[in-house]
Amino acid sequence: MLPPVARRIPTTVRLKDCYLCRQEIRWASGVAPPWRPAAILDEWVQREARPISLRQLTFFGRTLTEYRLLSSANYVRTELPTRLAHRLRDMQTLPYVVVTNPHMSHVYELYYKAFETLRRVREIKTVDDNDRYCSIITETLQEHLTVIPKLTMGIIECQSLMKPQETNKFMNTLLRSRISRRVIAEQHLALTETFHSPWHFPDAKQPQDPSSDFVGDVFLKCNAKEVVEECSQRARTLAREAFGSACRMPEVNLQGHLNATFPYILSHLQYIVGELLRNSIEAVVERWRHLPGHPAPVDVLICEAPQHVIIRISDQGGGIPTDILPSLWSFGKGPRSHIHLENLVRVPKMAATMQELRAFPTSAGGIAPDANDWRRPVDGSLSSLTYRPPDLRLGMGLPMSRVYAEYWAGSLELHSLEGYGVDAFLTISKLGNKNEQLSTRASMDAV
Fold this sequence. Notes:
This protein is α+β, with helices and mostly antiparallel strands. It is about 45% helix and about 10% strand. It is built from 15 helices and eight strands. The protein has a five-stranded mixed beta sheet. Strands 1-2-4 form a three-stranded antiparallel beta sheet.
């Protein structure tokens, strides 16, 4: 007779794959999350998250005063546990055998620990209170760097236990919520750092450097042309290291409205554009290894409309294989999921807001920065993701890029012509007045 937990596994799954069934029984028998009373979580799930726009994020820091800093702190103080509560409830509605997967259980426990810590923080009334709160936020951000790889590995291992559309909806919901929490947390950390800076005071002269165009993490004059040039150079360098210095590298041609600027979180745009250019350049290089002549260029068109900036990236890399196309935006399914699972083990940590550009490297002696010192840049540990070699395919670059694009009310679409190439269309809201696109609230009833 099967153990009680195994009876919860659908008969079709038990008959379909006995090995997977034994695997799930092993998961459930050893790593089930502990029982906790639901009343406290119910209280927080009843609360609505309050989405914020880029324009509102910059409002707190334009003329930063103690009152605005404390207002920002108390907004973050109530939003973080609220948003965590909804995602905990989402995880509780998953099939029991999925939650007991070691990777999924690890994420659940991290979320619950953060929820319990953050919900107990009292109203922030002084700058000292805020500094202590910033230390708590920083420590939590550090602890959660393992969430994305763990979550993705868990989803891949459990792909036969959930419908693909349910899996992708769950992943998109959790990732979008995770991005939202890190955005408001890291924005507040940046504002706090600004508040303590010597040039913050009215009688001090602000330095005339590019950083003056930043309000916290929001870059007020993000220029698409400069981002494309930087990301294309990085992608070409990685491709040359992977394929050898003798490989023929495609040019990246830029045209259109090259002076278009807009407010945006720079690291978000760099990640999306970087992933698209990596894919295009690597595809062209691989295709032209077997073709004569110089590789066809990658064409980038920037179009500025009254409310949007559209970036089109076109390549002649042969298009997307037909066996990959149906699972292009999927986190779990696909013919190469077993390869992605093996590669994810090599990327143990990732941040959700792509803060590798601000990562604080460990010293030569291997001493990491103090996690409680919020004045140091948040260590996103994403250089391993952004600068990964072309053969380290994780199967999450495009799905994550779409989540980032849609987070600020944008979009990302791909059109593939098999045998020729791919056109990618990235649409960005340029006015900064669109609220973050949060996931729908969780159900009150946990199954």
